[in-house]
Amino acid sequence: MNPPEEYMNNNLGQLREGESNQEITKQLSSDNSISESNSLDKVREILFGSQVREVEKRFARLEERLVKEFTDVRDETRKRLDALEIYLKKEVDSLTERLKNEQTERNAAVQTLSEEHRNIAISLEKKFAQFDEKTTNSQRDLREQILNQSKSLQDDLRQKYEEILALLEREAQELRRDKIDSSKLAALFTDLAIRLNTQNKS
C-alpha cells in the first residue's frame, strides 16, 4: 500500500471518530504536498544533481581564487603602503634636516648682523666720545688763548697806562721845575698827544 492510500485509511478512521470532512481534506492536501515535494526533490536530484555539484565546485574554486587574489591584493597594497610610508618618512626627515640647516644658517646670519651692529654702535660711540673730547679740548684751548690774549692786552694797556702816567709825571715835574710858559706847555701837550696817538696805532 502506497503512502497516499495509508493516509486516506487513517483519515477515514479519524472521520469515524468524529472529525469533520473539512479537516480531513486539509490533512490530505498537506500530505499530498509533502509527498509531491519529496518527489520533486528526487526528480531535481536526478536531472540537475551533477550540474548543481559542478556549479558548487566552480563556486568553491571561484571563491578560493577570489580569496587568493584578495590576499595577494592585500599583501601588495600593504607592501606599497609600507614603501610609501618609508618614502614619506625619508622625505619628511630630509625636509626636517633642511629646515634645521636653514634655521641654523639664519641664526648664524642674524648673530653676525647683531655682532656687526654692536660693533658699529661701539665704533660710533667711540667716535662721538673722541669728537666730544676734541671739541672740549678745542674749546678749552680757545678759552685759554682768549684768556692769555686778554691778559696780554691788559698787561700792555697797564704798561702803556703806567708809561703815560710816568711821562705825565715827568713832564709835570719839569713844568714845575722850569716854570715854562703857556706856549711851551701847549707844545708839551701837543707832543704828548702825538705820542699817545702813535702808541695807540702801534
TrEMBL record:
Positions of region (Disordered): 1-36
Coiled-coil residue windows: 143-185
Name recorded for this polypeptide: Uncharacterized protein
Origin superkingdom: Bacteria
Species of the source: Dendronalium phyllosphericum CENA369
Keywords of this entry: Coiled coil
